[in-house]
TrEMBL record, chains A, B:
Statement: the UniProt record of this protein carries the keyword Methyltransferase: no
Source organism of the structure: Salmo trutta
InterPro entries: ALAT1/2-like (IPR045088), Aminotransferase_I/II_large (IPR004839), PyrdxlP-dep_Trfase (IPR015424), PyrdxlP-dep_Trfase_major (IPR015421), PyrdxlP-dep_Trfase_small (IPR015422)
Organism superkingdom: Eukaryota
Identification of the protein by name: alanine transaminase
Subunit structure: Homodimer.
Domain Aminotransferase class I/classII large, chain residue ranges per copy: 104-489
Catalytic reactions on record: L-alanine + 2-oxoglutarate = pyruvate + L-glutamate
Role of this protein: Catalyzes the reversible transamination between alanine and 2-oxoglutarate to form pyruvate and glutamate.
GO cellular component: cytoplasm
Pathway: Amino-acid degradation; L-alanine degradation via transaminase pathway; pyruvate from L-alanine: step 1/1
Lineage: Eukaryota, Metazoa, Chordata, Craniata, Vertebrata
Record's keyword terms, sorted: Aminotransferase, Pyridoxal phosphate, Transferase
């Protein structure tokens, strides 16, 4: 066949008869929307970390003996043990013969029986309805009502999802329309979790950045929302505002007042609100409390509660259970137009249903053992242990990082990450880094990985104010491993500073770090 | 805020202050690509069936006492029992304390230990790599090599997926590019499984129909491929050909010669081949055999095997296990350009990973008990029972349907469906149906549902030659229920014919039906 693409674009295959044949799918013919997508949480640094890890296993020499992955919120991979009750229920659902076993507690069996009753043929192997298993959606609604102190929740508004990501992408997909100046604009925080920028880019929507206030513990500033909105109106049609609370990668927990302001703004400007609340159980700072957007909307009165279109998202992957692999999640969607709702269900039905074992895991999270039930004590103990350790590690991470000259870390009020600012001496990137076409924070994280085995994600993967540099690290390694990580990071950073800014004297000394570490021993 | 949309488009909300406020997301502002999507397998007939089912439960009167759902390939919902070994492995992975239990066989424990070794923190709750757990991908490669009698399979080409649908959509997404006449065209069979048309429509690719030959047992005719390709070249850039083998909804099993012709055609025209082989274990006709596209490509010689870009798809949902709810699957992608491959992994990484319990289920399907292992006998017995019953029901469905005047059904050689042609008297749709803006087969299925409780999918949901009408029904109900279904369907069809074509004498009588049914008693 004759060549369809220039050889610059095409991968040319030499045929046996001496003729060439280009591949059908090449970088030249690849969907440009796919090409444009970026997702740093599993980006080049992480790929490199995997290569190094395999190298170590094969006996390659590195200046370290293990790779410490602090790039992704994957609790179990970092050693957290599953919640026993949750796994009992999933095992019972998977192999119902165990319902006759005396080694499973009655409350776990009762949950499993109820879930199986809701499944076609009483099997986890049936497709569920596209919105999810009815009784699990009902349990979600009850959970939300209790969480929100009685604000009504209708299970008809609940959709089970394949992790939160799936729900977020589905809702965004509904909202993208128009061309040119009327193309949908989506307001997202900067820094953000890169699922948002990836989905926006893939759908060719317009990304509208509103910057969180790093100097004010990454708080959302309503004036910044107005600024971003007004500027964006010139070239697109802003239709959605996304909020991540508690924040990812920033770890801040929003105040009730702040949420009210956002909702008032969304009401006035007719914006659809997407509230990513997957870290709702991960609040560590005693000064902070999780307020759901829905509850705040309710308290603003019926004019708001019956009007503002709000989708909120939750997941099995975070919180205290950390069950990422099950890909469980739900979304609650308020005030959706009825015809649009039918369209949403149609859209979801193409993928048939979310994984039913993930739905079962979600059920346990919204319907945990009650005080009078046999599994309550163990469940409560396991849950508290996980959340207590996370709270300690959140505090430790902030404090240790702040003893390092040239690193400044806001309090990790919630979620699972620190997003410290790092000062990279101008000489470092002027002389060396930019020549390689790499962002300075990417080069920083790459060197950190190569020299210490620590795998973090560069701030540029989440977005940051121009001229500022950060990295995201999880607080998920065990306390012991986290200490090692923080000390190695400190040493690396000081060495890095000395190399590129030898004349500047570090303001804080190693003694500070050791002093700070003491309290966590 | 001032109104942004005309009231014809917008859902207007009356505010308390008397002003109106339109919703942000309305049928007028909804993503038009979402609006355009259709998915009949869970379409309006199925929604109606759900309503009727709930009505029956609440005591509403209908001319029947139960809804029989033959609309979707959901084996467990229709009463098929899970394969014990598969569920044992999943339960062991979910709750590893069971590894100490003496009530689980050693081979199941060995599978579970191996899978857990491959998971971060040895937990099903960790994210896997975006391509899936390494050792499961290795097992898939070994399975493919054995299935294909030694044709080499590289586990680096294996991607675990969230059911087959997920893989199909991901590959299609990569392949869509260009504008106007250079927009990607995707060749799909008609009739087709509507995931394809839905994905094509959502991505605004160009759908190129090639018609399967109903008069020749739904075989794929190479001349029809050429016709469709040549016609499409005028207005788009055909870049992909999709094949479903065994066929859905048509149940045909492709001959080796036919597959060779398709692959030669794809080679000549530089088409990317997507081969949907989820029914590879569902072949019933003794004259037919499943040939994988990959094996045939291999046997065509290295010029083909090293050149043609081929993605093939498999799933836990079909075959003999019918584990739809776990959303497990894999794809094997051959001859993918290396840079494009990195882009595919990037795209998959945004959704993090397929459900890990589904990956575990997939592992059992590709790595079942061996003859010397303790679970072999029971596994083999269960597998044979499922496949034997399906083969019997395939034959029964075809034979009974062919005793009904005005219904003509091709042999159900494989898969899980019959797709018979129904003759709808012109009076039926001229007088009544078209006035309601409904396709005649949709109206037929709706009346069937309302009068008998049988839920089928109209042929128009899959595509059919103009002027012909069909429905898709699964062969999954139990033998007893399937008999009831077929008899009710027969009576309905004859009544329908009498109503709209009273002068035509039915050519076959009820005696034929009863005679045919006898052999299945």
């Amino acid at each position: 066949p004759k060549s369809r693409f220039s050889t610059a674009e095409a991968t040319v295959v030499l045929r046996e008869n001496g003729k060439t044949r280009e591949k059908t799918l090449t970088m030249g013919t690849l969907n440009p929307q796919v090409k444009a997508v970026e997702y740093a949480v599993r980006g080049p640094i992480v790929t490199k970390a995997g290569d190094i890890e395999r190298g170590l296993q094969q006996g390659q020499k590195h200046p370290f003996t293990e790779v410490i992955k602090a790039n992704i919120g994957d609790s179990h991979a970092m050693g957290q043990k599953p919640i026993t009750f949750l796994r009992q229920v999933v095992a019972l659902c998977s192999f119902p013969e165990l319902l006759d076993s005396s080694s499973f507690p009655e409350d776990a069996k009762q949950r499993a029986r109820r879930i199986l009753q809701g499944c076609g043929g009483q099997s986890l192997g049936s497709y569920s309805a596209s919105q999810g298993v009815d009784c699990i959606r009902q349990d979600v609604a009850v959970y939300i009502e209790q969480r929100d102190k009685g604000v009504p929740a209708d299970w008809d508004n609940i959709y089970l999802t394949t992790g939160a990501s799936d729900g977020i992408v589905s809702i965004l997909k509904m909202l993208v329309s128009g061309q040119g100046r009327s193309r949908s604009g989506v307001m997202i925080p900067i820094p953000q979790y890169p699922l948002y920028s990836a989905a926006i880019s893939e759908m060719e929507a317009v990304q509208i950045n509103y910057y969180l206030d790093e100097d004010n513990c990454w708080a959302l500033d309503i004036n910044e929302l107005h600024r971003a909105y007004q500027a964006a109106k010139e070239h697109c049609h802003p239709r959605v505002i996304c909020i991540i609370n508690p924040g990812n990668p920033t770890g801040q927990v929003q105040s009730k007042k702040c949420i009210e302001e956002v909702l008032h703004f969304a009401y006035e400007e007719n914006l659809f609100v997407m509230s990513d609340e997957v870290y709702q159980d991960n609040v560590y700072s005693p000064d902070c409390q999780f307020h759901s957007f829905k509850k705040v909307l309710y308290e603003m009165g019926p004019e708001y509660f019956n009007t503002v279109e709000l989708a909120s998202f939750h997941s099995t992957s975070k919180g205290y259970s950390g069950e990422c692999g099950f890909r469980g999640g739900y979304m609650e969607v308020l005030n959706l137009d009825l015809e649009v709702k039918a369209q949403l269900v149609k859209l979801l039905s193409i993928r048939l249903c979310p994984p039913v074992s993930g739905q079962a895991a979600m059920d346990v999270i919204v319907n945990p053992p009650l005080p009078h039930e046999p599994s309550y004590l163990q469940f409560h103990k396991e849950k508290s242990a996980v959340l207590g350790a996370l709270a300690e590690k959140a505090q430790m991470t902030e404090q240790i990082l702040n003893t390092v000259p040239g690193i400044k870390c806001n309090p990790v009020q919630g979620a699972m990450y620190a997003f410290p600012r790092i000062f990279i001496p101008p000489r470092a990137f002027v002389s060396l880094l930019q020549s390689l076409g790499m962002s300075p924070d990417m080069m920083y994280c790459l060197r950190l990985l190569e020299e210490t085995g620590i795998c973090l994600v560069p701030g540029s993967g989440f977005g940051q104010r121009e001229g500022t540099y950060h990295f995201r690290m999880t607080i998920l390694p065990t306390t012991e491993k986290l200490k090692v990580l923080l000390e190695k990071l400190r040493d690396f950073h000081i060495k890095f500073l000395k190399e590129y800014a030898p004349l500047e004297e570090p303001k804080r000394s190693e003694d500070d770090t050791q002093e700070a570490l003491k309290q966590f021993r």
